[in-house]
């Protein structure tokens, strides 16, 4: 299949899926459901790219398995979290801010999410067109994938276990991986995107796939990830969270500054 046709079909799949998701959230009255669908949508587009591309067959199947495994874990975890909570405060705040234009602007927001899914699936297209035989870069990608998925799953599990305990209500989770980073789940999510760079890097123009983890870092650190999450954390935990901010790295895991934490 011609690469331009592949791109067009992938883009149409993305915007169509998110139009359907918009209808679902409108009928349910819960816009946070998009978080559950996001990872699965990247996987659908990425698997499509891997299946139709003409590159090394082993690498194409490897890419499809990796993106599917990541999406299954993330979507299942987010589904369980979505099912057990009211609408995410981020989306509630957006709808209140937008007022009568909320659903129109939410449709645009969903389409932007769809476009983002399309962009983040592009490294798998490049990997799918990579004609080179499997090499050490590819196995490095698999190793990065394993470390990042295990790290993200551990982060999610540790936070869930902390929140289950009644005595921790209103407290800040700073144990386990959360002792070294305020957002270890985001860090490992970002790290995961380097897996597909490793699959694509030996292809012509493969170096361009580095833009995917760069963009993910930007969104997590400057747009929808850490900034919005920490606004809500300060609202609910106040000075306890401010002390955690002062002592603990926001993103990259590192040893906390215990002097600042005590102050």
List the helices and strands and how they pair.
Blueprint: H1 3-28, H2 34-52, H3 57-83, H4 89-98, H5 102-128, H6 136-164, H7 184-192, H8 194-200, H9 211-223, H10 226-237, H11 239-247, H12 258-262
Helix pairs in contact: 1-2, 1-5, 2-3, 2-5, 3-6, 4-5, 5-8, 6-7, 6-8, 7-9, 10-11
Can you put this structure into words, describing what you see?
- By secondary structure, the chain is an all-alpha fold.
- The chain folds into two domains: 1-132, no CATH class; 135-263, no CATH class.
- The protein has twelve helices and no strands.
- It has helices at residues 3-28, 34-52, 57-83, 89-98, 102-128, 136-164, 184-192, 194-200, 211-223, 226-237, 239-247, 258-262.
- The longest helix has 29 residues, at 136-164.
- It is globular, with a radius of gyration of 20 Å.
- The model has no long low-confidence stretch (mean pLDDT 94).
Highlighted features:
single chain; 263 residues; mainly alpha; 2 domains; 12 helices; 0% strand
User: Poorly predicted ranges (pLDDT <50, ≥5 residues)?
Assistant: none
Q: How many individual domains?
A: 2
Morphology? globular
Helix content: over 70%
Order of helices and strands: HHHHHHHHHHHH
Beta-strand content estimate: under 5%
Radius of gyration: 20 Å
Q: N-to-C terminal Cα separation, in Å? A: 62 Å
The residue-averaged pLDDT reads 94
The class by helix and strand makeup works out as: mainly alpha
């Amino acid at each position: 299949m011609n690469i331009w046709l592949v791109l067009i079909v992938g883009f149409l799949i993305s915007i169509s899926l998110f139009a359907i998701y918009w209808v679902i959230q409108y009928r349910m009255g819960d816009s946070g459901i998009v978080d559950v669908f996001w990872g699965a949508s990247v996987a659908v587009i990425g698997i499509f790219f891997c299946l139709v591309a003409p590159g090394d067959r082993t690498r194409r199947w490897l890419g499809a398995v990796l993106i599917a495994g990541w999406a299954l874990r993330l979507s299942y975890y987010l589904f369980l979290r979505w099912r057990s909570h009211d609408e995410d405060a981020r989306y509630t705040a957006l709808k209140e801010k937008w007022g009568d234009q909320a659903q129109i602007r939410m449709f645009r927001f969903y389409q932007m999410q769809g476009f983002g899914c399309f962009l983040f699936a592009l490294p798998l297209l490049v990997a799918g067109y990579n004609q080179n035989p499997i090499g050490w870069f590819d196995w490095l990608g698999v190793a990065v994938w394993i470390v990042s998925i295990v790290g993200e799953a551990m982060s999610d599990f540790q936070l869930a276990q902390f929140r289950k305990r009644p005595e921790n209500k209103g407290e800040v989770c700073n144990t386990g991986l959360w002792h070294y980073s305020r957002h270890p789940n985001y860090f490992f999510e970002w790290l995961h995107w380097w897996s597909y760079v490793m699959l694509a890097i030996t292809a012509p123009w493969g170096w361009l796939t580095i833009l995917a983890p760069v963009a993910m870092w930007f969104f997590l650190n400057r747009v929808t990830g850490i900034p919005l999450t920490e606004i809500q954390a300060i609202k609910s935990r106040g000075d306890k969270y401010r002390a955690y901010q002062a002592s603990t790295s926001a993103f990259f895991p590192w040893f906390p500054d215990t002097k600042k934490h005590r102050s």
